[in-house]
Write a structure and sequence with these properties.
The protein is mostly helical. The protein has a domain at 31-78. Helices cover 20% and strands 0% of the residues. The protein is globular, with a radius of gyration of 16 Å. The chain starts with 30 loop residues before the first helix and ends in a 58-residue tail after the last helix.
């Protein structure tokens, strides 16, 4: 886990971590799933859902975005699951433990929403070629390279 390349202080040095078996959902949580959670539990809507309404009916099968960590945890509790640990997330993202992309050398457009110029999301099942060996679809490790940041 971690890296031997420049990064944040808590990412160095690379080191071994032992993990027990765990499950990862095949797809990201969709807007529709999150909307149901909010409606059933009365939990707060994400801030970008203006007037506490779903943003666009055409986005029901897109991943929910801009959800705070506490809200993601509340959703996981509701569906009787849990958020992955950092080590579990890194293991799934690296797949074979070494390579950031199992599909290295192929066009990103065939495997993920990585090079989308309009910056919008796509349906969670849109990129079957990007599925990792662990079964998670469109699992992209390093958003920072695109000038984006993953917030946990």
């Amino acid at each position: 886990m971690g890296a031997n390349t420049p990064g944040r202080d808590d990412e160095n040095p690379e080191h071994l971590v032992s993990l027990k078996g765990y499950y990862i959902d095949k797809y990201e949580v969709t807007n529709l799933q999150y909307k149901e959670f909010v409606q059933v539990t009365g939990h707060r809507f994400p801030r970008h859902w203006r007037n506490n309404t779903f943003p666009d009916a055409s986005l029901v099968d897109h991943p929910v975005v801009n959800v705070l960590w506490d809200d993601a945890k509340a959703y996981c509790d509701w569906v009787q699951k849990r958020l992955r640990s950092e080590a579990e997330w890194e293991r799934a993202a690296l797949e074979d433990g070494r390579d950031e992309y199992a599909w290295r050398g192929s066009s990103n457009a065939d495997y993920s929403n990585f090079d989308n110029p309009d910056g919008k999301t796509t349906p969670v099942d849109r990129y079957p070629n990007g599925k990792s060996g662990l079964g998670a679809w469109e699992h992209v490790r390093q958003c920072q390279r695109m000038g984006q940041r993953l917030v946990r």
